[in-house]
Design brief:
- The structure is a single chain.
- The protein is mostly helical.
- About 85% of the residues lie in helices and about 0% in strands.
- Helix 2 packs antiparallel against helix 5 and helix 3 runs antiparallel to helix 4.
- The protein is elongated and about 100 Å long.
């Protein structure tokens, strides 16, 4: 083999080795950056909204226990009342969700006529009103568990406790 071919072959091999090392370094950097990005996303993912329900219950229970001074008996009454309330409100929300699907199907079958849109909106408002009434009656039932001495405190603080809950959910 002539020497020039050997040198070219050797230079080509050196270039291939250099390119291979360069590609390995680039792949390593990309792999490392992906690992860092995934770990960042996994560690900083926000808490799901469904997880807030336990926090809401704890928030109100703590409010009743600490701020209102509820006795153990009153807290047990609240637990029973709240369990019934959750079943009722869940059934109402499930019903609204199912009805909304049906209303959307009806809207498409009427080609989104103005009268169908108005009728659907009226039904939705009516169901939302029913839910709001159940929520406000639940608050009234909680208030009725208060002693006469606790009721003024409840009236002045309950709104603030709910506002704090809503602020923590927005974050």
């Amino acid at each position: 083999m002539p020497q020039s071919i050997t040198l070219k072959h050797r230079n080509t091999m050196i270039e291939k080795t250099y390119k291979s090392k360069l590609l390995l370094i680039i792949i390593g950097i990309l792999l490392l950056s992906n690992i860092v990005l995934l770990s960042f996303l996994m560690l900083n993912k926000p808490t799901p909204k469904r997880g807030m329900r336990g926090d809401r219950y704890a928030l109100i229970s703590n409010f009743l226990k600490i701020d209102m001074g509820f006795s153990k008996e009153q807290l047990q009454q609240y637990d029973t009342l709240n369990a019934h309330y959750r079943k009722t409100i869940k059934a109402m929300f499930d019903s609204v969700r199912d009805e909304k699907e049906n209303h959307l199907k009806d809207l498409s079958s009427t080609h989104f006529s103005d009268s169908a849109i108005t009728a659907t909106a009226t039904l939705s408002v009516s169901k939302q009103k029913d839910i709001e009434v159940v929520i406000f009656r639940h608050f009234k039932d909680i208030r009725s568990m208060c002693t006469p001495e606790q009721q003024p405190k409840f009236d002045s603080l309950f709104y603030k406790a709910l506002s704090q809950k809503n602020e923590s959910q927005k974050k």
